[in-house]
Amino acid sequence: MKEITILASDTLRDALQLLDRSARGILVLTGTDGKVLRTITDGDIRRMLLNGAALEDDLATLPQKTPVTAPDTTSRAGMLELLDQHRIDHLPVVDPTGRLVDLQDRKSLSQRIFLSAPHMGDAEREFVEQAFETNWIAPIGPNVDAFEQEICAMLGIRAAAALSSGSAALHLAMRLLNVGTGDVVFCSSLTFIASANPILYQGAEPVFIDSEPDSWNMSPAALERALEDARRAGKLPKAILIVNLYGQSADMDPLMALADAYGVPVIEDAAESLGATYKGRNSGTIGHLGVFSFNGNKIITTSGGGMLVSEDADMIQRARFLSTQAREPALHYEHKEIGYNYRMSNILAGIGRGQLQVLGKRVAARRALFDTYRQRLSHIDGLSWMAEPDWSYSNRWLSVCLLDPARMSKSPLEVMQALSDEMIEARPVWKPLHRQPVFEGCRYYTHSNESTSDRFFETGICLPSGSNMTDADVDRIIDTLCATME
User: Phi, psi (5° rounding) for residue 397?
Assistant: First the structure.
């Protein structure tokens, strides 16, 4: 702290020279014992000179001013509150004896670490500029066509439709499978509500299926019981919607075997799992239809957008038709059925093309971050991590941990509050859909006698996982977790 501390016996000239060298705009005046006496700005010195002081006068002549300081145990949120309360922008941090240990400023204190911030590269701008230069701004265009082709080539799948969101892709998947009023759709319970909303859009009834502990995704045991009950009742589901949670594939072979045995098509919600694989096969390509999201927090982003993929090219062609208001091929505007404004814009597709080029790097960065968390927090008793079965290669979209309540003194909510106090965003694991008020009364099949999804929700935390976090960000997160949970 030598570059910003000065003694009362030093002169005004010394202070001006130190202010110039430090470029911080503020100094901390301390006694010989290191205790903070006050802060000094160039404005303070200027006012002294205007009042007749000389540059060789010592700083002891400065007017006495009770310093606003923060104990070194104060959280970032607490320091910001002090800054707001006193209408200042710098805050000396002191140890229990009052000695200076740090000088914080509003800008650095306000730097928030987000759960999963967008990570832009260099190529995106080139594709977007091409869209501007050619005036392809609206939906459809060369970037849209190329983005679809590049996704197909990367995934090894026949057809893809670039859409305005992952939710739009899920909705069109329901339409393509003729899900309608009175139908039933089986759906993973441990997921975001966007997975199930399209079931209701079509007037169908969701039936929720629990997760199994190994992959955190749909339980084959629960699905088998649900299908057998449906067979006995004489009403099989119109579709099964399997979600690949937090970047990891479900155990697709047994799930697909069950679906095929009962003749039910599968929608694979891979919104969070682009770049992940299952037994070497790309996530999102194993079901009859696959869905990806490019929302701002996903592993790659188009700001907002999604993709529907399938080996059935005719089905994807119909999705494109429905996504452009179901306009018939006539010179005038002819419509024989209801469609939607779901097509991706050429500008956003340009962003997606650039992002797709760095997908491998983004996956590697998130996997490395997960490993860092697991290694550096391995000493904390009662902390465990989302597993990765032998057949899985997760993109680790989010790093997710579980807190054993029998072995830890802090609850997930208390840990998340401690992180929030340090301006670090963390979230609970998804609240299972069978517990959401909007789905009250819907049927739910558990993996075993107890609900796995409920246990994960009640004990889980999603940690910041952005591929563009700095080493300092990671240190700040881990330091806070250690201080809270050890």
Answer: -50, -45
What is the CA 121 to chain-centroid distance, rounded?
Answer: 18
Token reading at 392:
């899985």
Letter string b/e over residues 156-185, b meaning 16 or more CB atoms within 10 A of that residue's CB:
ebebbbbbbbbbbbbbbbbbbbebeeebbb
Mean of pLDDT values over 207-228: 98
| DSSP for residue 295 | -
C-alpha span between 473 and 38 (Å, rounded): 30
Nearest alpha carbon to residue 145 among 350, 318, 283, 354: 350
Expressed in angstroms, the distance from the first to the final Cα of the chain is: 29
For 293-347, what is each residue's pLDDT tens digit?
Answer: 999 999 999 999 999 999 999 999 999 999 999 899 888 999 999 999 999 999 9
What would the DSSP string read from start to end of 41-104? -HHHHHHHHHTT--TTSBGGGSPP-----EETT--HHHHHHHHHHHT-SEEEEE-TTSBEEEEE
Q: Which of 485, 420, 432, 475 is nearest to 457 (CA)?
A: 432
* Nearest by Cα to 267 from 293, 295, 289, 234: 289
The model's pLDDT over 225-273, given as tens digits with 9 standing for 90+, comes to: 999 999 999 999 999 999 999 999 999 999 999 999 999 999 999 999 9
CB-CB contact of 423 with 401 (8 Å): no
Tens-digit pLDDT profile for residues 467-477: 999 999 999 99
SS3 content of the chain, % helix, strand, coil (to 5): 40, 20, 40
- The model carries a pTM of 0.91
- 94-106 mean pLDDT: 93
The 10s digit of each residue's pLDDT in 133-186 is: 888 877 788 999 999 999 999 999 999 999 999 999 999 999 999 999 999 999
The span from the CA of 451 to the CA of 471, in Å, is 37
Nearest-angstrom CA–CA distance, 257 and 208: 19
Instruction: Give the integer Cα–Cα distance in Å for 344 and 324.
Output: 10
Q: Where are the beta strands (DSSP E) in 263-315?
A: 266-269, 277-278, 281-282, 289-293, 306-310
Residues with Cβ < 8 Å from 246, sequence gap 6 or more? 216, 272, 386, 394, 396, 397, 398, 400, 462
R_g of the chain computed on alpha carbons: 29
Adjacent-strand bridge partners of 303: none
